[in-house]
Amino acid sequence: SDCYDSNVTASSQNKTSGQRCECPFGYSGDPYIAGSCTAIPRFYGETIRSKKWALVGVLSSLGSIILLFGLWWLYKVVRKRMIKKRKEKFFKQHGGLLLQQRLSSGEVSVDRAILFSLKDLERATDNFNINRVLGKGGQGTVYKGMLVDGRTVAVKKFKVQGKVEEFINEFVILSQINHRNVVKLLGCCLETEIPLLVYEFIPNGNLFQYLHDQNEDLPMTWDMRLRIATEIAGALFYLHSVASQPIYHRDIKSTNILLDEKYRAKVADFGTSRIVSIEATHLTTVVQGTFGYLDPEYFHTSQFTEKSDVYSFGVVLAELLTGRKPISLVSSEEAKNLASYFALSMEEDSLFEIIDKRVAKKGEKEHIMGVANLAYRCLELNGKKRPTMKEVTLELERIRGPDKKFNAQQNHEEIELARIEDYQPYSTSNTFPTLSRGSPSSEVMPVLTSDNW
C-alpha cells in the first residue's frame, strides 16, 4: 500500500499526527494491513488487451487508407492508359496516321490542316458546354470555341461514314482550298469516337435569314444582293474549275451561304460534296439534296454534274431577285416551287410582278433583267443548256460593271456594315426537308459529313 503523513485533528486542543494509506491503482483491499492489497482480477489483462486493440485499430485504419490510396492511384493509371489506348484506336480508325503522313510529307500545309488534340478543343469550348452550342443539325452539333491563340472557331461533331482512306483523301484536298468566299477548314480532331472538325467562325448568320426574316437594321439592298451573288458564283467557279481537282458542292442553298463580319458571302456545308476526277463528266450517287434546290435532271437520273450546282445557284438567284422562299406553302395541302414559278413568270413576261419591291425600287431595270435572264438559263430543265459557273461569274461581273468592285461607295458600305455589332448566330436548322432515294451504282465518300451551320 502507499502511505503518506497526515495531520488528524480531534479538537482545537487535541492534535495528533498519523498516516493515510491507499492501495495502488489496480489493487483492492485494506491498505493498513500489510499484504492486504491484492490485484483486481483481469484488470491488467483488459488494460493490455485494450491497448493492443487500439494499436490494431490504428494500424488497420492506416492500412486501409494506404490501400484506398493505392487502389485510387492504380485506377487513375489504368484509366489513363485506357483513355490513351482508346484515343489511339479512334485516331487509327479515323485515318489519323494516314493524315499525319500526308501532313509530314508536305502534301498538305500544316498551317491549313491542323490535327487538334481533344484537350485543346475541350478547353476551347469549355468542355463542350451547352451554352456554347451555335446550332444542331441532323448530322452534328456546332460549338463556338476560342483557341489558346485567341482565334474564335466553330467546332463541329459529326459522324464518319464510308472508307477512311477516301475520307482522309477528301479532307486533305478540302484543307488546301483557300478561297475568300469558301468557309475555311482549320483542322480536325480524331481522338474521339465522333471526329471533330474545326472551322473559322462566321458571325453574321446566313443569307436565308437576311432575305426572308425581316431585318430593319440591315435591309438587303440590290447592290448587296448583286455582290453576294457574284461572290457565290466565284466560289463555285473556283470549286468546279480552279481547285486541284473539281469539287461538286451538291447542296447549294441560301442557308449554306454564311455572311462574315463585312457581310461577304462564304459558301459552307460540304457534307454532301464530292471530289471528282478531271475527266469525269458526272457522278452516280444516292440522290441527296434539299427540296426547292434539287436539280430535276439529277433527281430522275441519279447522275450529278457540275450543272446540278448551277441549277441550285439559279434558285438562289431567284431568291435574291424575288425575296421569296424556294418552297412556299399556298395552303395546308399545296406548296409553290419558286424555280417553276420564276420560270413561268419569265415566259409570261410578268417578272416584275414577283420581283422584291426593294429590288425594283433601287435596282436598274437593265441589271435586274440581266440577272433574271441568267437565273432563267441556270434553271433550264436540260442541264446541257445551262451555263457553266465560269460563264455565270463573268456575266454577273459584267452586270456589276468594271468599277463596281472597288468604287468608294461600296467600300464605304462595307466599312459601315462591319461596324454593326448585333448579329445572329449560325442557323443550323434544316429549313427545308431533305430527301434520299435509290441506291447508287458507285458510291463516293463525302468530303466532309456535316449539316447546315
Automatic annotation (TrEMBL):
GO terms for molecular function: ATP binding; protein serine/threonine kinase activity. GO terms for cellular component: plasma membrane. It is found in: Membrane. The chain crosses the membrane at residues 53-75. Pfam families: PK_Tyr_Ser-Thr. It comes from the Eukaryota. It is a single-pass type I membrane protein. Residues 430-442 have a biased composition (Polar residues). Residues 430-453 are annotated as: Disordered. Keywords: ATP-binding, Kinase, Membrane, Nucleotide-binding, Serine/threonine-protein kinase, Signal, Transferase, Transmembrane, Transmembrane helix. One of its GO terms (biological process) is cell surface receptor signaling pathway. Residues 128-399 form the Protein kinase domain. It catalyses: L-seryl-[protein] + ATP = O-phospho-L-seryl-[protein] + ADP + H(+); L-threonyl-[protein] + ATP = O-phospho-L-threonyl-[protein] + ADP + H(+). PROSITE patterns: PROTEIN_KINASE_DOM (PS50011), PROTEIN_KINASE_ST (PS00108). This is Cold-induced wall associated kinase.
